[in-house]
Design goal:
With 114 residues, chain A is mainly alpha-helical. Chain A is 30% helix and 4% strand. Chain A has a two-stranded antiparallel ribbon with strand order 1-2. In chain B, β2, α4 and β3 form a beta-alpha-beta unit. In chain B, α2 runs antiparallel to α3, α5 packs parallel to α6 and α9 packs across α12. At the A-B interface, α1, α2 and α3 of A face α9, α10, α11, α12 and α13 of B.
């Protein structure tokens, strides 16, 4: 049977050597998420189990196989450069957390972190 | 009064167009059912009773004036709450969108409205469409109308339950890895993921952009065909939508199965429970008896679909969900600077499964790992598409289970992400290949719960898929009539 995708689910109570808590911590930062110590431990176990399961494709010979990005093999789709209908600015800004002077408002961007 | 209201969308539209019932009467019947059972099922995040009453009255006045109210005249429709509705909250069942009200309607919402449908509400889902049980909702789980101790499937569980409970005649969902077909199977409705690009996704909040498709839940195959004919066709505002006219499906439903070549996958991944397998065998027999030729085919890479999918879909999700940062949409958690605000907003706003997938996707795309995970998964995706293409050289359609099991109990798989992912074993490959797939209700399995048989076809052969599905439905109806006789 190809892949054994349904059978052979890895146990979640085993820590994988494929990913460490330091890796997960880095990934969380990249994804702009904060994890508690407990969440970090759980995420490391869960992601490790998944990566162990996904290792089933490690043995496949994929040399020369063209990667598939999307089913229709579209590249760029361009339209004529003509003015069309746009969203109503007030309606868009009304749905944002904060707006000021017809723009999205955010807290200070520099100066507090360093 | 309620006896006069038909269940099927095709019959509702016909009755409303001919004036034998009014759109308002149809709507009131459905709202009454929502009043009775919604508290135990929780199909909806929001019921739009006032808006729907206004719209139904409009349809009735169009009929009264002798104008054409459209092919879906007066049909109550429920919309998955990841479809944008102008001025009406659209939540993705996530806290992060807060009370965000989209500034535009999704193309499918517009097209349904133009066809005369009446939107009755926004349905619950697994947060951002990530899940197979509708338990991962910030607003609590949806229950299966056939047994409220069980899940409706997911992620479009609210849309499936809304049709199964008779709250709406049709509903729309989205399917990234099975999120229409699996809940359709578990709730005993028809559920269709059309060919990738057949239906515009403008206004569908993106999860996995190379995989997502919108499709209907309905009581019958004909209703699904009617709905898809109304919502499909090119949309210049979605660059991934195929430049073709709307799908032509209803004209193919009576063609029968004679001469149809139906594939049986001999190397299908194991895991279907015996009751589901028994129904699948019966479906092959039914089509053979109707004149189809059953042909054994191999799809060697089928079993690798789950792995390829759970690298590609989270990778795309991690990118798509980067836009939820507390700047433009809905909720924000205040913090002294922008970077801390991003972190606080996303940490507070996303649920556990969404965070899990964002982290998995971020990891699969991160420096040093991208080629080993995302890159290899894209190559496996190509193998799967090639294997299906080779199989379709010899068959017109393929039958598989839609879900490995009937509906499971609420809480059963909630603590084991991998076990939950396995629910989509049979549906995922067609998202990867971009081919259409649909679940057709096909009797019952364990505990008397619905079983769905999945019909698959090559891209742009949605009409052939519907032809086979209609034959399976006729078989089920003949069995039911036989049992009553």
């Amino acid at each position: 049977m190809a892949g054994g995708a349904v059978e052979g689910v890895d146990s979640l109570d085993r820590v994988s050597d494929r990913i460490s808590t330091a890796d997960v911590s880095k990934v969380a930062t990249l994804a702009r998420l904060t994890l508690t110590d407990d969440e970090l431990a759980t995420a490391t176990t869960e992601l490790g189990a998944m990566l162990d399961h996904f290792a089933e494709i490690d043995a496949l010979d994929l040399d020369g196989v063209e990667p598939m990005n999307n089913p229709t093999n579209l590249v760029n789709v361009m339209r004529d450069d003509v003015v069309g209908e746009t969203l109503d600015r007030d309606e868009v800004l009304a749905a944002a957390p904060m707006a000021e002077d017809d723009r999205f408002r955010v807290p200070p961007i520099i100066g507090l972190d360093d | 009064m309620s006896n006069e209201i038909p269940e099927q969308a095709t019959m509702i539209a016909e009755a409303v167009r001919f004036g034998t019932v009014s759109a308002s009467q149809v709507l009131e019947e459905h709202l009454a059912r929502i009043d009775t059972r919604e508290a135990e099922i929780h199909a909806f995040n929001l019921v739009l009773a006032d808006e729907a009453r206004e719209r139904a009255a409009e349809i009735d006045s169009i009929v009264a004036e002798g104008r054409d109210p459209g092919p879906l005249a007066g049909v109550p429709v429920a919309l998955k709450d990841n479809l944008c509705t102008r001025g009406i909250p659209t939540t993705c069942s996530s806290k992060i969108l807060g009370d965000w009200k989209p500034p535009y309607d999704a193309t499918v919402v517009k097209r349904l409205s133009e066809a005369g449908a009446v939107a009755v509400g926004k349905t619950n889902l697994d947060e951002f469409a990530m899940g197979s049980s509708t338990e991962n909702s910030a607003f609590g789980p949806t229950r299966n109308p056939h047994d409220t101790t069980r899940v409706p499937g997911g992620s479009s569980g609210g849309s499936a339950a809304a049709v199964a409970a008779g709250f709406a005649a049709i509903s729309l969902g989205s399917d990234t890895g099975g999120s229409i077909r699996q809940p359709a199977a578990l709730c005993g409705t028809v559920g269709v993921k059309p060919t990738y690009g057949a239906v515009s996704r403008l206004g569908l909040i993106a999860f996995g952009s190379s995989l997502d498709q919108i499709g209907p839940f309905t009581h019958t195959v004909d209703d699904a065909a009617l709905t898809l004919e109304a919502i499909s066709g090119h949309d210049p505002a979605d660059s991934t939508s195929i430049e073709r006219p709307p799908l032509d499906l209803r004209s193919k439903l009576m063609m029968g199965a004679a001469g149809l070549r139906v594939g049986r996958v001999t190397d299908l991944p194991a895991g279907a429970s015996p009751d589901v397998q028994q129904r699948l065998d019966e479906a092959f027999d039914a089509l053979a008896a109707a004149g189809a030729e059953i042909v054994d085919v191999e799809v060697p890479a089928f079993g690798y679909g789950l792995t390829a999918y759970y690298l590609i879909a989270p990778a795309e999700a991690s990118s798509n969900l980067a836009r939820f940062d507390g700047v433009r949409f809905g909720a924000r958690t205040s913090a002294p600077d922008t970077n801390q605000m991003y972190m606080a907003t996303r940490t507070d706003g996303f649920g556990a499964e969404v965070k899990r997938r964002i982290m998995l996707g971020t990891y699969a795309l991160s420096a040093g790992y991208q080629e080993a995970y995302y890159g290899r998964a894209q190559k496996v995706r190509r193998l799967i598409a090639n294997d299906f293409a080779a199989a379709y050289a010899n068959v017109d359609v393929i039958l598989t289970p839609a879900s490995p099991t009937v509906a499971f109990e609420v809480g059963d798989k909630a603590s084991d992400p991998l076990a939950m992912y396995l629910c989509d074993t049979y549906t995922i490959p067609s998202n990867l290949s971009g081919d259409p797939g649909m679940s057709v209700p096909f009797g019952t399995g364990d505990h008397g719960l619905p079983v769905g048989v999945q019909v698959l076809a090559p891209a742009l052969q949605d009409h052939t898929m519907f032809r086979a599905a209609a034959e399976l439905e006729r078989y089920v109806q003949s069995q039911q009539e036989g049992a009553l006789a």
